[in-house]
Design brief:
Elements: E1 2-6, H1 7-17, E2 22-25, H2 32-38, E3 45-48, H3 52-64, E4 69-74, H4 75-80, H5 82-91, E5 97-103, H6 117-123, E6 127-128, H7 133-150, E7 154-159, H8 160-164, E8 166-170, H9 186-189, H10 193-216, E9 221-223, E10 229-233, H11 235-244, E11 249-252, E12 255-257, H12 261-268, E13 273-277, H13 283-290, H14 309-317, H15 345-354, E14 358-361, E15 379-380, H16 385-397, H17 399-402, E16 405-410, H18 411-427, E17 433-438, H19 467-473, E18 478-482, H20 487-499, E19 504-509, E20 524-526, E21 545-547, E22 552-554, H21 564-568, E23 574-576
Parallel strand pairs: 2-3, 2-4, 4-5, 5-7, 6-7, 10-11, 10-13, 14-15, 14-16, 16-17, 17-19, 18-19
Antiparallel strand pairs: 1-8, 6-12, 9-11, 20-23, 21-22
Helix pairs in contact: 1-2, 1-7, 3-5, 11-14, 15-20, 16-18
Length: 579
């Protein structure tokens, strides 16, 4: 039976069919749906872990325990998981261990567009890269087999277009994988220097064997056509090449590390002009040039952003590509990201901007506070960095600067990697004011539960982390919980905490407006008679409030009735729609 599937959904199906029984992840676009789909299979234990490092460690433990395990993350999540990755490459596995990594060329939802292929090379771990949903399913199953055959983890690299595109997938049966025996073996799994040195020898032997395997593997395929032009490519770039150069010969690399050097040499000998088409870095190109083979790639193609068929046709073959799809009759309107109507972060940013504070920011919905009209975020580096950055600013610029600075971080991000930053502030005698924006969910990636929500990935009730008690436990004595829509109280609290000569935490607590449990009274309207067009309500940046120049209106199709605008109007001009 065939079914139309997202690439991420097909990955989940592949894990199920391979007999995988353990899945751990931290949500991050474009990888999030992998584990959400896996959670629908009751045969697989699945979890949202506090961060990617913990997720990989859980999967490693399951593998050593004899199960097949899968761990999923986005590309920047692999940075967080790099420590256990490099060591499990040495220790090897018991049950198959597959690491799904979704890169984001074009940075649709990421702070950088790093190329994860270099992690595979640096950690000496094989990497596969599918180009459609069918291959997503198949390659995951191959990855488990390769993992057990070569005693190593296997990374499967996706990109946004593969993760979030749909194509037909042939549904197969679940493999009856039996839990492998657990055998104590300190020389294999305890990576003290003496053991690690011996394991490194095994890693190099494995890489040599994998190079031979890559040359004969059906994961890599040659499609001979024209003798004039040959293109080496992989992943989603293969789909673009098929559109842009339908008559070219193609070497499609499915095992992107180690590359199939013998197959590449053979392919190069059969064509007059050889190109490499790959997104981001010249990963293949540099290795092929090192082999002494003349090839053209990044001299003509960009190292930034996504590729497409039109770009390939124009840059490589100097011809216009005629797209077959139906074109829109009108230009698609630009839709910049914006905090949703009713978003609890809006009240908080209104206060921070009013107080003209420096804001050390973090990763989440609240990152949008950097955009107009809030324009109230000075830095955003990576998950959990806001607290450490604020602490560093204080140490560099002194107490007066600190009294004009706050760090903002979400509840899920705080659990992910903010706790250690807060501990650092306390331990090293900092006085930073940290605002934890608790919206009762992991918001930006699409409403996933986390340790602060009280529910597991399957929606089962579990113990809930108490942020107030946690902050006090690490040494914060000044902890205040406040509703961000109570802007007067919030302003009062912020003023008090930034003046205090000790570290403090403000927990801005109000659930995400998009949660099903959140109910508002109904849309508001602006009274033309009462409104003085002072435009104070525009400062909160609500997309439902529209400036018509001669007057202001509230779009009832967007307004959720959160009433934040009523808190900043001095003339009681904002009323219920039915009044």
């Amino acid at each position: 039976m065939k079914k139309l599937m997202l690439g991420n959904e097909a990955v989940a199906r592949g894990a199920y069919e391979a007999g995988c029984t353990i899945a751990a992840a931290y949500p991050g676009t474009p990888s999030t749906e992998i584990t959400e789909y896996i959670a629908k299979y009751d045969e697989i234990y699945s979890e949202w872990s506090p961060n990617e490092k913990v997720a990989l460690e859980v999967a490693i433990g399951a593998s050593i325990g004899g199960a097949r395990a899968i761990c999923s993350m986005k590309h920047v999540g692999l940075n967080v998981a790099a420590d256990p990755l490099f060591t499990v490459s040495y220790s090897g596995v018991n049950g198959g261990l597959v690491i799904m990594v979704a890169d984001d060329p074009g940075m649709h939802s990421s702070q950088n567009e790093q190329d994860s292929r270099f992690y595979a090379r640096s950690s000496k771990v094989p990497m596969l890269e599918p180009s459609d949903s069918q291959e997503c399913k198949d390659f995951v199953k191959y990855a488990f087999e390769i993992s057990e055959q070569f005693d190593c983890p296997v990374i499967v690299r996706l990109t946004t277009r593969v993760s979030h595109s749909q194509s037909s997938v042939e549904i197969g049966e679940k493999e009856n994988f039996k839990l492998k025996d657990y055998v104590k073996d300190a020389s294999k799994y305890v990576m003290m220097p003496a053991m690690a040195r011996r394991r490194h020898v095994e890693v190099e032997k494995r890489m040599a064997a994998l190079r031979e395997f890559s040359n004969s593997s059906e994961l890599n395929k040659i499609e001979l056509d024209s003798e004039e032009v040959g293109i080496i490519t992989s992943g989603i770039s293969y789909q673009y090449v098929k559109e842009a150069a339908p008559n070219a010969s193609i070497l499609k690399i499915g095992m992107v590390h180690p590359i199939p050097e013998k197959m590449i040499s053979e392919f190069a000998s059969k064509v007059k002009m050889l190109y490499v088409v790959e997104e981001l870095e010249p990963f293949f190109e540099n290795q092929i040039l090192k082999m002494g083979i003349k090839v053209t790639g990044k001299q003509k193609l960009p190292v930034m952003g996504e590729l497409n068929a039109q770009l390939i046709a124009e840059k490589l073959f100097d011809r216009k590509f005629e797209a077959s799809q139906v074109q829109a009759g009108q230009p698609i309107p630009v839709r910049p990201p914006v905090m949703c109507p009713g978003c609890p972060h809006r009240g908080m940013y209104y206060v921070l901007k009013k107080l003209k504070l420096n804001v050390s920011g973090d990763i989440g919905c609240y990152t949008l506070g950097a955009l107009p009209p809030n324009e109230c975020m000075d830095t955003c580096i990576c998950m959990g960095a806001s607290i450490g950055v604020a602490h560093g600013m204080e140490k560099a610029r002194g107490s007066e600067f600190r009294k004009n600075t706050v760090a903002v971080i979400g509840d899920s991000t705080f659990i992910h990697s903010g706790i250690t930053g807060l501990i650092d502030v306390v331990y090293n005698k900092g006085n930073s004011t940290v605002m934890i924006l608790d919206n009762s969910i992991t918001g930006m990636t699409g409403h996933q539960h986390n340790p602060t929500t009280g529910f597991t990935i399957k929606g089962e009730p579990t113990r809930q982390v108490d942020l107030e008690l946690l902050c006090k436990a690490v040494g914060i004595e000044r902890v205040t919980v406040v509703d961000p829509f109570d802007v007067k109280e919030l302003e009062k609290v912020v003023k008090a905490e930034i003046e205090a000569d000790e570290p403090s935490v403000i927990i801005s607590q109000r659930p995400c407006a998009l949660l099903k449990s959140v109910k508002f009274e109904g849309s508001r309207k602006i009274s033309r008679e009462k409104c003085k067009t002072c435009r104070a309500c525009m400062k909160i940046g609500c997309p439902a409030i529209v400036d018509k120049k001669d007057h202001l209106e509230i779009n009832p199709a967007l307004c959720v009735g959160c009433k934040l605008c009523t808190k900043v109007c001095s003339f009681d001009a904002i009323e219920r729609m039915d009044s």
